[in-house]
Structure formats: C-alpha cells, structure tokens
Amino acid sequence: MNTAKERKKNFLSGQKGLIIGLAVSFAVLLLGYFFIIRPLLKDDKKPAGSTTSLIWEDERLVSGNQLLLYPAIAEDNINTIKIHNPDNDPRYVDWGFFYNKDEDESKNLDADSYYLTGYEYAAFKKDSFSYTAMAIGTVYCSARIEDHCTDFSVYGLDYTDINEKKYVVVTTRDGVSHTIVFGDKLPSGSGYYVRSIDENDVLDPETSESTGERKVRDSVYILTDVYTSSTLLSTPMNLTTPMLGFPANTNSRLQAFALWIDEDKYYTDKLDENGNVVKDENGNPVKTLSPAIYAKPTDVSSKDPFAVFGGMSVYDIVRPSGYYSSSSLEDLIDLFEDFQGSSVVEMAKEMTDSEGESYYGFEKELLKKYGLDDPYYMLLYRSNSIDNYVYFSRLIDGEYYYAYSLTFNVICKVDISKAYFLSWDLKKFISSSVFYLQIGNCKSIEITGNYFDLGVDNDSRKGEQNVNLKFRLDGSGQTLKVIEANSGRSIDVKNFRQFYRILADVALREEVDKALAAQAMKQDPIATVKIVTAESIVYKKDSSGNDTDEIDFTRPSVTKVFRFYKLTNGRVLLTIEDIDENGKSSGEAGSFYLVTGSVHKMLGAALDVYNGIDVDNITRG
Q1: How far apart are CA 310 and CA 435, in angstroms?
Q2: DSSP alpha helices (H): ranges in 66-189?
Q3: Does residue 361 surpass a pLDDT of 60?
C-alpha cells in the first residue's frame, strides 16, 4: 500500500500521468462493455430488450431498475414448491417442499410445518428452506431482454414437453401459482435466461392498465444467480441436514449403546420373550448376531450387586459380560448430542415390501455402491427412548466412512473425527480393573492356585506354592471382621485391606484371539477367585435422595467366578462367570489377557495375609 508521501508524489507527477490514467480507464471500460455488459444484454443472436416499462400485469418494477417476475410471496404464504431438474440424478429429478397444515400421525407429520416432498422424514436445514423460499418467492430479474419472443430456441427455452426443461412451480396458500422455466446459462455464467408460462393480463404500455387481453407470457428475462443454483436447481441432499441419529440428552445417560463389528462377530442363542432358547424345526438352537460391545446404564436400584458395586462405573457391560465400563463410554454422550455427518449423499425413497407394506429404503445395488449392503460396523444408541441405528462402511482412504442412518433414512459421508469410536478396540470400552468391588459388599473371597515363589525379603519360603484359602467377611467399615474359613483363623483386617488393594491393582491388558482363548480354556486354570456378595437391604429414598427407614427391597447374594488360564509364560487369559441368586450361570467367557506376574502377586499376597506376614504392595510387585 502506498504511503501518504508516495500518494502525494503521484498526485504531483503531472499531466503525463493523468493522460495515461485516463487512457487505461477508457480501455478497461471498453473491454468491460464488450466482454461483460454487452454479452449480458445482447449477442449476435439475442436481441436486447428493456425494463423501463411494464407489459405484464404481474410484473413489478423495483429499485435498481429490476423487475419482479411476479408479486413477492412471503415464506409463510408458500403452500408448495415443485422443483423439476432433469440434469439431476434420475432419483432426484423431482422434489420440493410442501406445507402441512394439520397434524398427520400416520406419516408422523407435525401441524403448521414444511417438509421435503417425497422425503418427509428428512431433517432439512432451516436456512436452506428460507433461501429456497426467497429464491422463488421474490424472483428479481435484471432485464427483460425480449418483449414478445418468437424463437425461444435462441435462449434454450424451447420445448415440446416441459419435462425436458428445468422448471419450478410455486403455489401460495390461497391457490395462486407461478411457473418459471430455465433456459441456457448466461455467457458470463452469472445467471440464466428464464420465462414465465403463467397466463397473464397484457398492460397498455402508456397507461399500465390492462388491455383486456390475456395470454401466456412470451417474454424472456435474465435471472441473476444468487441462490438459484444452490436451492432451486440443487438436489434435496444439499438442503438436508446429515443427521445420523436423534440428539442424545446430555443431562442423562445413554439408555443403551451397542456396536457390531464385522471382523469380530458374536453369535448367541436367540431367546423368546420368556427367556427360553428359540429352536429351529430340527430342534437346534437358533443363533442371533450379538454386538461386540453392549452397555446400558447402571441401575442404582438394581438387584444385581455387581451393577451397584461397580463404584464409578456408569454403565454395565452386558456384552462381553462380567466387565465394567470405562470413562470412554461415558464421553460418547457428548458426541451423540449432535451426531452428524459432513454431507448427505443419498436419500431413501418410498418402497414396498413383499407383503405390500410401504417403507423408506434403498435398493441393494445402491447400498453396495457405498459398502453398506453388508455393513462393516453397526451402531445402536438409545436416547430419549429412541433407538438410533446407523450402519457404517469400512474406513475409506483413512479419512471417512459412509453411514446409513436408519433413523433419518439417509446415507451420509462421515469424517473419522465424527466416528472416532469405530476405531477403538474392545479394551477401550472396558475398565481395566478386574476386581471392581467394594470390600464392604463382599461375603466371601475364595482364592486357589499354584505359583512358583522366588522368595520375598530373603525369607526361606521358596519353590512351588499352593494356595487354597477362603476368607469370610462380616460387617463393614470399623466393624469389619475377616475369618479364613478352612482353618477358622482370624485375619488382621488392616493387613487384609492391603491384600485387597493388590486385588484392585490386577488389570486387564489386550484382547485375546478367540481360537487362542478356546485352546487355553482346555487346560486347568492356574488360579481361580470366587467372590460371593453379601445380601443387603435397600431402603427407599426421600425427596432429597437420602435413605429412609422404609425398606424398598432386599438385594440378593450373587457369585462371580474369575479363572486364569496360561497362554504363555508371561500372559494368562481371564474368564468370568456370573451366577445369580437362583444358581443360574451366565457361562464362562473370556476376552482379555493379564500379565502372569499380577496373578502370582495376588496369590502370594493372599498367602502372606493368611500367614500373618505384612502385605507390601511394593515388594510383592
């Protein structure tokens, strides 16, 4: 930018600079006229018209010497907008908007609302609708370039069938209709040649009064492209919000979260509404695809003690069973508050199933195009009592997925940043703690196993050690008492609490291959821990959330069995079995391994507490 001193020097440079400046300005204006202004008004084939007079009754002359093709229509007076664009994909040639006056429960339509025609389910962008309503409601033309055209082919406005052309029809709530037909783009690309095919009264050019003659308007106009291409000549996808599911409520927890992963499919017996296994005609159990991860909120009034004793665990992990949720799962509530993709690429059409019932969906070939005919991931999250299902393709180019929202009937492009949890391994959803149980809620802890002790603090106890102990607990807090049931020996509570801290440090590592896990479980476990919870009374709460003296229910005693199987010298597989108050077992299953040293440390600490040796978390490490 020139300084003030330089500008002053330029101003004083004399007549020569002024002449050169005028010459350059004239050249620019001349070029602008021939290459910009003149092509807009007239070319070798298109005669120039004028906007200085009104020749049709619906025309309105506005400021800036522009023409309104017809009187402005307010957004809230629009009844329908029909858009026909044969340049679009065949599935999206015809679309638009309609005003729904009364509530329609059969189609789930609210009263006094606008919807996309043919895509009533879609959540369109409010601003986009306003721009569309503005583009068709107030059609500003910069010029009427031919008053009474006899050869519309010059402008690309000739046709024998109007469906060959792009056109838009707007209808008001009182039944007035206007139709605009689009022809060629202007040479500058800044707009279109258009015509209105509504019947109209002809005006007397001198009095602007009707001549009494009524005819189809045969003028040609220039429509500057402000919102036209992005609204009236666009597709419904560009105006639709790429919603993947209804927003989650950040003031509460997810009511359910489930994720199916193609490479790690889980099949379980299908159960009927009474909890019985469904069998096929040959008497074999019917298998159903179960999610790799399925979680639901911890119920504070649950009769399952481990659902309550999870401490900080907000969600119960239903599958794989026996584990507790990590904080990562809790963080997803923020993501699902506004779960959207980056753009909509396809919208479902109404279809009919084999029984004649209508539904919105996609042809299999179209789903295959996006890798969604056999989705790699399937997601369910329940919020506000609404189940949101989303199918995902594999990750594409390391950057994005295609997602099919069954809730909103759209296929969206989704950046990896909006679906980052799909790349999590199962361990990310699970708390690493194995014995996630408050000590005061234990009735007994039975621990058995063998390990090779190298000695601690130079004591004489070395070699193969066998552990077979059962600690009975009574009371809680300061009244807690611990007895070793097999011997009747009283255990020092303070030292037992140190042992319990070591239990709490036993942590999961990574997932184990299913085949490898199955092979490991054919051996005898190297260690087993069996925990039985204490039966407890749950009291009703008052309005402040405090316990009252009134009993709500009794929480039963249940059992959890942890088994450790050797995988390698340094790793062990952990399996978990839940047994309810009626003795019904969940079955034994394992998904993760632990470091062998942590199991040996646990066994050694149990033996130490039994023998009255101070349990030291450091030396036992």
Answers
A1: 9
A2: 126-137
A3: yes
> pLDDT digit string (tens) for 434-443?
886 677 778 8
376 touches 394 (CB < 8 A)? yes
Q: Do residues 309 and 437 touch, judged by C-beta distance below 8 A?
A: yes
Please give the DSSP secondary-structure letter assigned to residue 243: B
pTM, two decimals, is 0.76
DSSP strand E in 407-516: where?
A: 410-415, 442-453, 463-474, 481-484, 489-491
Partners of 448 in the beta sheet? 468, 528
Handedness of CA 229, 234, 238, 240 (dihedral sign): positive
Residue-wise pLDDT for 162-178, tens only, equals 999 999 999 999 999 99
| Radius of gyration from C-alpha coordinates of the chain | 38
Distance CA 529, CA 434 (A): 11
Mean pLDDT on 130-153:
92
**Token digits for 478?**
């300061």
Angle at 199 between CA 195 and CA 200, to 5 degrees: 90
For residue 346, give every residue at least 6 positions away whose Cβ sits within 8 Å of its Cβ, in sequence order, or none. 91, 237, 362, 366, 370, 410, 411
Question: Would you state the pLDDT for residue 45?
Answer: 44
Question: What is the per-residue pLDDT for 266?
Answer: 65
pLDDT range class, residue 405, cuts 50, 70, 90: very high
| DSSP single-letter state for residue 333 | H
41-45, 185-189, 237-241, 267-271: least confident range: 41-45
Calpha distance 102→83 (Å, rounded): 23
For residue 513, is pLDDT > 70? yes
Residue with tokens 């895509």, as numbered in its chain: 119
Q: Is 245 exposed, middle or buried (0-12, 13-18, 19+ CB in 10 A)?
A: buried
Helices 596-610 and 493-505: crossing angle, nearest 10°? 170
For 474, phi then psi, to 5°, come to -140, 135
**Each residue's pLDDT tens digit, 539-584:** 787 877 787 888 877 777 888 899 999 999 899 999 999 888 888 8
- Whether the ω angle into residue 285 lies within 30 degrees of 0, i.e. cis, is no
Question: Two tokens at 31?
Answer: 């070029």
Q: Which of 500, 516, 521, 496 is nearest to 588 (CA)?
A: 521
- The neighbour count for residue 181, using CB atoms within 10 Å, is 21
> Which residues is 170 bridged to in the sheet?
81, 178
The predicted structure's pLDDT at residue 26 = 34
CB 115 within 8 A of CB 56: no
- In whole angstroms, how far apart are CA 120 and each of 22, 98, 236, 559? 60, 9, 11, 52
